[in-house]
Amino acid sequence: MLTEAQREIIEQLADELYRNQPALAFTGAGISTESGIPDYRGPDGLWSKQNPTRFRDFLTDLEVRRRYWQRWRERYPLLARTQPNAGHRALARLQAAGYLREIITQNIDGLHQKAGSDPSLVIELHGTAHQIRCLDCGARWPAEEFDPGPEGTVPDCPLCGGLVKEATVSFGESLDKDTLRRALELAETAAVLLVVGTSLSVYPAAYVPRRALRGGASLAVVNYEPTPVDNQARYVLYAPAGPALDELASLLTG
Ligand SMILES: [Zn+2]
């Protein structure tokens, strides 16, 4: 699945990870497509952004909230069953062996943690679909245990009566400031940044590699298609994440 030229690049990258610390990863939808979660931009994505729920509409329109929760009842059980793939497992192996520190992700699927990454080392810029949160009092519940009530109804916070939704960043909603700040600070102090499965089209998340470059990091890009930072990257692999990262982790961890 990998070409000889790609294997050579992966060997050079492994050598850099061996010598140069700390390394971080920055992941996007492309690392989860091999787990059956389509890219947001795909035509029939399970979590398609074709018709995203706008945050403002969610806040102001009961009918929008009704549709949101109806889709949640249909979709969450599928996400809960989704399994990590070779790419997620390879990053977890690199972390366990000390070659990789934090993983900053744009994904909400929780697959890095399912693959064995320490949750405290996974920074979820766009939140997580595995928790429900109250927009008013901030209370959170595991999505798996959350009962949204009968079909056609909209759940309220059992503690304060406020609006509840997935603990993800909706279209038109700001990212959590502290989470973004932590990600950018880590990026700035990284020696190596592995960019995996993201075309860097969504801001402000796409500032992460730019901040890393500004801090002097070596950049490695593993993605199906070109990204805006390829010309500044030391290593560029137009390859599926699973085989490429598996090769990388195997070189370093045996
Ligand atoms: Zn509440």
Written overview of the protein:
The protein is α/β, with parallel strands linked by helices. It has two domains: 1-37 and 84-126 and 174-254, TPP-binding domain (Rossmann fold, 3-Layer(aba) Sandwich); 40-81 and 127-168, SIR2/SIRT2 'Small Domain' (2-Layer Sandwich), CATH 3.30.1600.10. It is 36% helix and 16% strand. It is built from eight helices and nine strands. Strands 3-2-1-7-8-9 form a six-stranded parallel β-sheet, with helices on both faces. α5 links the parallel β2 (103-105) and β3 (122-124). α4 (86-96) packs parallel to α8. The chain is elongated, with a radius of gyration of 19 Å. The two termini are 20 Å apart. The model is unreliable at 41-48 (pLDDT under 50). It binds zinc ion (ZN). Zinc ion binds at residues 134, 136-137, 139, 157, 159-160, 162.
Main sheet: strand order: 3-2-1-7-8-9
* Helical residue percent band: 25-40%
Beta-strand content estimate:
15-25%
| Number of separate structural domains | 2
Shape: elongated
What is the rounded Rg?
19 Å
| Ligands, deduplicated | zinc ion
**Class inferred from helices and paired strands:** alpha/beta
The tally of beta strands, per DSSP, is 9
The number of distinct helices, counting runs of at least 4 residues, comes to: 8
